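Q: What would this complex look like in 3D?
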Amino acid sequence: MDGKRPRGPWAKTLMALAIAIPLYIWSWEATQIDLGKLVQDAYKAGPIVGQLLRPSLLARGVQRDRLQVTLKVPCAPGETYEPQGDLDRLQLSAHCLNPRDPLQVTGINLRPNTQGRLYWIITGVEGRLRDERFTTDENGAFTVETDVPPLLGENPGEHRLQAELRWEAGSLNPSPALRTTAEKLIETVFLALMATTLANFFAIPLSFLGARNIMPSTGWGHTVYLATRTFFNLTRSIEPLILATIFAIWVGFGPFAGVLALTVSTVANLGKLYSEAAESIDPGPIEAITATGANRIQVIWFAVIPQIVPPYIAFAVYQWDINVRMSTIIGFVGGGGIGMELSRWINQLQWNAAATAVWGIVLVVTVMDYASALIRERLV
Amino acid sequence: MLQIQDLVKVYEDGTQALKGISFTVEDGEFVAIIGLSGSGKSTLLRCINRLIEPTSGRVIWDGVDITAADPRELRRIRRQIGMIFQQFNLVKRLPVLTNVLTGRLGYVSTWRSITGRWSRADVERAFANLELVGIREKAHNRADELSGGQQQRVGIARALMQEPRLLLADEPVASLDPATSHSVMKYVEQLNREMGVTVLCSLHFLSLARTYASRILALKDGLLVFDGSPQEIDDRRFKEIYGEEAVEVEIR
Amino acid sequence: MVHETPSAPSLRRHPALAALLGLLIPGLGHLYLGRRERGAAILTTALALTGLALWLELTALAPWGLPFWLWQAWEARRYAQGRDPGTLRLLLTAAILVYAIGWQVTEIDLQRFVANAPKIRPFVVSLLRPNYLEREITYASVRIQFTMPCGPEAPGPPPTSSGPGPVLGLDRACADPGDPITVYGEGFPPNLEGELWFENTIGDRARLHHQGELVDFVAGPDGRFQATVTAPEVATEQPQPQFIEARYVTEVGPLQPSETARLVVYRMGETIAQALMATTWGALFAVLISFFAARNLMRVHPLTFALYYVVRTLLNILRAIEPLIMAIVFVVWVGLGPFAGVLALTMHSIAALGKLYSEAIENIEPGPIEAITATGANRIQVIWFGVLPQVWPPFVAFTVYRWDINVRMSTIIGFVGGGGIGFLLQQWIRLTDFRSASAAIWAIALVVTVLDFFSSEVRKRIV
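A: Here is my prediction, written as structure tokens for the whole assembly.
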């Protein structure tokens, strides 16, 4: 630091800036960064974040009380109709009506302070037609004004009006979202396990072809080495998600496509790591065992295998960890695992359920991360 | 009797490691090979059991041309030639006992060896050899848990398993401290004296060679520059071998 | 490898009883022999796997659990006899059941894999033919009008198109769907090859078929041809004018970059820019945060140490969530486009870099700091000369590495609408435009491989 600096560094810094500044300006433009929108539209994210912090974990069972009475639509003038059903508790102002006629529905002796809803069950039409909501008073009674939907007129005959009361009861149980999340997380972990295991059957032999010290340094040996390494590098550069999209075409949506995609990317990842591990083995023991008059198989068994097994296992466990992460998103493109449910819940705006999945992922990934670090520490 | 005839080794990068070396070693001799690093000592030793393939020249042992042996024959020859190394070259993750037993690989079938079904006699012999080098109690330790001197003794025990008639030692004590060096060299000497094993041992320091060897070969730039008894090396010879600047150091 | 006989357990038990207990309840045999840890481990494994199989309704897999069940009982017997059976085989037998469950859960179906292989053939073929270049092709066509379907009144004479140039003729003036129509041509350039197209009243066009094959025509040396086509379906029941068209190439332009190539280059640029912005933002925030996540700096006071744990936990949680998942939330927030992707990648980069940076800070050596303090330097000087030189090389290395990872990630962030090349790629795959997909994939492979090489070179130089 004596002031007599050579000019080089300044020129270099200027040049670096000359490249960096336009690059950043262009990048800013290209990525359409808009901090204003980020702040202005924060309200859109607010509810999501709020719900993400409240995952759906427990839910009570839902109890239902259904009452129904029959009625006739349309009603010929002067026609008499004998209704049937729960007439003692569900009473209508009339049972023989025409479309759009006003109708008063009264319920008595029901569960007090309970929410419910009216439904029309129309003869000849699938499902139920929703109508007014109601809440019973402390005596278990309600009264609702409605009118006859025109759809009943299009299917003349006997129809039913249904009043359904719903309330939560019973003990707290794991919510459906939690159950699905748990099931899918298990699938996710197994998906990663199967992919890692299957990949090993290919990665181990390939890793020898990709190790400079194992392949002969002449002619075709070097060619095979280069070809293997190129295959590893090219395949590694394609994200498993892209592979999963392709395998979904091949074997259809589902975890199998995910297994195949992860297997291919794992073969490339592990192949590269394995062959690097094989390249860094100590040649000393090989020399020593060869000098005892051992044959090639014995040399590999006693001098090569003991050196590569621990790093291979460490890398495999590490890759399993990575694959669990990957298989949490592989479902987005139809590759099975938790990602499939997560993307479905998000698309249906069921943020509480999505939160359950996200927190489940955090838990599993963290545990895997910790466990894999622990195993690797012990091995190396 | 081991005959080396006009041995030449040129590496792929063009380095001439050995430029035509010839000598003869009688059975039971303890020959030290000295010289600076890069003078060709290691190459010479490895050319004898063809861990390194010589470029030309011949190595003849008891009338058998090692340089002409086919792979099968070469393994039969190798199993009678023990070798110990500067870096010990043990399989670090395997137990000491297994490391010693690998010395029998040339004698047992592939299947028996890789399934670990060593004969009782071999296991007993392994324990006996560990006893001989004084580390029987370490038999079940992993090799890398041992100190340098102990590891080299495992190396000697491994070589002993081969029941060698010739022992090649490549700088066996260069990685060890002086006191340990002497204890290791004593075991080598014991092999030579009591079992009649011919020893070819490369050494960096002249003082060790003077103490243990019955004959000294000196290499310089791939050429044999001295062949004689330890007493014949005087100051002039020493400077010839190690260069003008060198001073002889005593290893105690 | 050699196993020495282990020292026999002090209390001799009955081997057959040990095996029997083991058969009854896994692990019980071991517990009886006093091998509590192993017994408990076996029992836990058995319970966990059984529970899992029951829950997932995979009870049919029970036979796959048999080896484990039998082996652990056998193992108990051998222990009782004073022999050591080793652990490897126990693990292997347990693995049989684990993999059997995994096989079922992940719906592995090799038969489907093989049977459906033809489905992927077009993709593999296209992979070798990315369409970066294409020729501009000029077509000429000759049209002839006729009527479909045939009406109640009698059809007129078979039509002929009017010149100048090549002319077309038909063997009938009207046709019903499915009728064979013979098309005549004359005055075409000799030996010309071309395609026959159909155009309906509202201008929808399609290639004409006959007996399941696309119909091409080849003019003879005299410039004439004759071809038979099948009248296609039409949406109308009223007789309407329709057209048959003979279409042929008049001019093939030179090879030039295709529209796909233009899109790929543009989106690839966006991808790299996204990664650059995310890495830069991520690094800036991560540097600030890393000081709060460094154990050695935060241990000075219980309050700061508590903050350390909070920051670390937050970073760990954030790191566990894949950027793709975050991108969905940001798409809701700021809308579709590269900005959402930048934000998602930034969040993930903050978490990943924050952890790495703070570990780098934790690993600095106190020696140089001590030495510089000993020279009488002030605090800023100590940081400048003692801390920064130790910290910046790993910081730069991690950042460059992160950029590399971010480029990979941003190739897929478009799958959920986060911008970059992923969106196009996914579209092309869905639309089975495999040659364009191939163009995108090769571009990704090139860019990622180059960046991978570049980042590893930078890291090699720095560290």
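A: To summarize the key features: Chain B touches chain C at residues 94-95, 97-98, 101, 116, 118, 123, 140 (CB under 8 Å). Chain B has two domains: 1-80+167-252, 90-163.
Q: Very helpful, thank you.
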